[in-house]
Specification:
Elements (H helix, E strand, L loop, with lengths): L4 E5 L11 H13 L4 E7 L6 H4 L2 E2 L4 E5 L2 E12 L2 E7 L1 H4 L15 H18 L4 E5 L1 H13 L4 E6 L7 E2 L4 H4 L12 E2 L2 E3 H8 L2 E4 L2 H6 L10 H6 L4 E3 L28 H11 L9 E8 L5 H11 L5 E8 L1 H13 L3 E5 L3 H10 L2 E4 L9 H7 L3 E5 L2 H6 E3 L9 E6 L4 H16 L1 H13 L5 H16 L3
Parallel strand pairs: 1-2, 1-7, 2-6, 7-8, 8-12, 12-13, 14-15, 14-17, 15-16, 17-18, 18-20, 19-20
Antiparallel strand pairs: 3-5, 4-5, 5-6, 9-11, 10-11
Bound molecules: adenosine-5'-diphosphate (ADP).
């Protein structure tokens, strides 16, 4: 087969716009796929994107897209960045907003129209550009699979679920503007408890469906993780598979990371970074005390309830804890109270890419007690920086971290794992990590092992290439 022409669509791509791991994957996966496909990536041209900085220019004339009674003036823009061609969809209602999806914890009222329009524009661009395959990511792009099947069914579609908990469910009143007919609005179509589910369209009308780790691919077939779609997914299980995310090894590299106080290529080289960070954060004691970090969204998914319940006991141990994140206010305020009570607990609120790199380099352990985790990038980034992950054994965490005390052959990384969803288990695992830190040689050996693990896209990009080929040729 010739090199396929692939259009990769996502609602956020680093460095243009990022609210979470999707943006990292949407940056690094297309880069890795260049070895196998002629690939372009497409996303909305949000107002926050600096057009000058990236040389983003209009491509061709504006055109109109009808959504029910309304017509929207859409224009495609483009640039080349880091060797990848990016395409941007501009339309005012989609792009000129302070947030991508809505204020923290909320969605904009017109998100169905905004992202329905984005999906129409993706398909319009794909059809005009004679692409062989559309690779769609998460609910914001999912309706494009349905639209494509109507406009050009011979074009293949792959749909990747990065997080099943966000499904894009909207009121049935949006059917007309979205162009959803009776035959689409059924239980085996987009209908979901009387509403419209974008996610279901992606699953139903794509030739293949993937999630971002093999364990999560099997977990979502169960009621605990299926978010109400477990039956639907089981029905489509023949086309479902899990392909583990990778991380971009240049973006996350302790050898060449300019955000660090000192670059390093072995765990002992972390020391100056730890000293610098302890000073920066005003944390007490020396580098002899283990430093635990948490970086991520303050959301139930990330195990914030467990963490907050466990923290008063964790901070009694001989260690420092530093937390960086933003998210739900109930978690923010409880963490702020705890940080004001304990001098060895530091809290940084907000989103700060460079600070996160300094923290990965400084820390000895990363806390990741997620209730569920489609893949998780933090643990892979941490291991690359020689920081041992302390994780709940679920989803991608189970696929990337094996317990230092276990007998199983490590899939790749080593760290500390627990299974129970309770604070006692987390505290016990942290105690184990603190003791392990005291055994310097073993700690250093394990950290060196983790730094040497291959968390690149090499293996997974090959799997996607094979999946693209099978989807285009209709093979299984
Ligand atoms: P998510 O479920 O949020 O997508 P992932 O583990 O897949 O979680 O990816 C999270 C990504 O966002 C990682 O690159 C992580 O380092 C980064 N990140 C999360 N929160 C912050 C923050 N407050 N500041 C800087 N980086 C962050």
């Amino acid at each position: 087969m010739h090199r396929p022409r692939v259009l990769f669509a996502a609602s956020e791509i680093f460095p243009f716009a990022k609210t979470g791991g999707l943006a990292d994957v949407a940056y690094s996966l297309p880069r890795a796929m260049r070895a196998y496909a002629d690939i372009e990536a497409i996303m909305p041209l949000y107002a926050s994107i600096d057009r000058k900085r990236y040389g983003i220019e209009p491509l061709g004339d504006p055109f109109w897209i009808g959504m029910g009674e309304r017509r929207f003036r859409v224009r495609i823009f483009g640039c080349k960045y880091g060797g990848v061609l990016y395409r941007f969809v501009y339309e005012s209602a989609l792009c000129d907003r302070p947030y991508l999806y809505g204020p923290p914890g909320e969605g904009y009222d017109d998100n169905a129209i905004r992202f329905g329009l984005f999906c129409r524009a993706i398909v319009r661009y794909a059809v005009r550009g004679a692409f062989d395959l559309l690779h769609l990511n998460d609910w914001q792009t999912a309706l494009a699979a349905l639209y494509l099947s109507e406009e050009k069914p011979e074009t293949a579609a792959v749909f990747t679920i990065h997080n099943l908990a966000y499904q894009g469910v909207f009121d049935a009143s949006q059917r007309a503007p979205l162009g959803l007919e009776d035959r689409h609005f059924t239980m085996d179509g987009v209908e979901f408890y009387g509403g419209i589910s974008f996610m279901k369209a992606g699953i139903r009308w794509s030739g293949r469906v993937t999630t971002v780790s093999p364990t999560y691919a099997s977990e979502i077939l169960t009621p605990e993780f299926g978010c109400g779609l477990e039956g639907f997914l089981r029905y489509h299980r023949d086309k479902l598979s899990g392909i583990l995310n990778g991380i971009d090894e240049k973006q996350f590299s302790p050898q060449r990371d300019r955000a660090l106080a000192a670059s390093y290529d072995s765990p002992r080289g972390k020391r100056p970074n730890k000293a610098a960070y302890l000073r920066e954060a005003g944390l007490p004691g020396t580098e002899e005390k283990p430093l635990f970090i948490f970086i991520g969204r303050f959301a139930a998914q990330k195990g914030l309830d467990l963490l907050i319940e466990a923290l008063p006991r964790i901070v009694q141990l001989p260690c420092n804890v530093a937390i960086l994140g933003e998210g739900e206010s109930r978690y923010r305020s409880r963490l702020s109270v705890l940080a004001s009570q304990h001098e060895n607990l530091h809290l940084a609120l907000g989103y700060d890419e460079e600070l996160s790199h300094r923290m990965y380099a400084a820390a000895d352990f990363l806390l990741m007690p997620s209730l569920f985790e489609p893949c998780g990038l933090n643990q892979m980034i941490a291991m690359r920086y020689g920081t041992l992950p302390v994780v709940r054994r679920t989803g991608g965490l189970a696929d990337t971290v094996a317990d230092v005390g276990g007998t199983e052959t490590p899939v790749c990384g080593r760290g500390f794992c627990f299974g129970e969803k309770d604070a006692d288990a987390l505290v016990g695992t942290v105690q184990r990590a603190v003791r392990f830190f005291g055994r310097d040689d073993r700690y250093m050996e394990t950290a060196a092992h983790d730094m040497a693990c291959d968390f690149s896209w090499n293996a997974s990009a090959k799997k996607y290439a094979e999946l693209y080929r099978e989807t285009i040729t209709g093979e299984r």
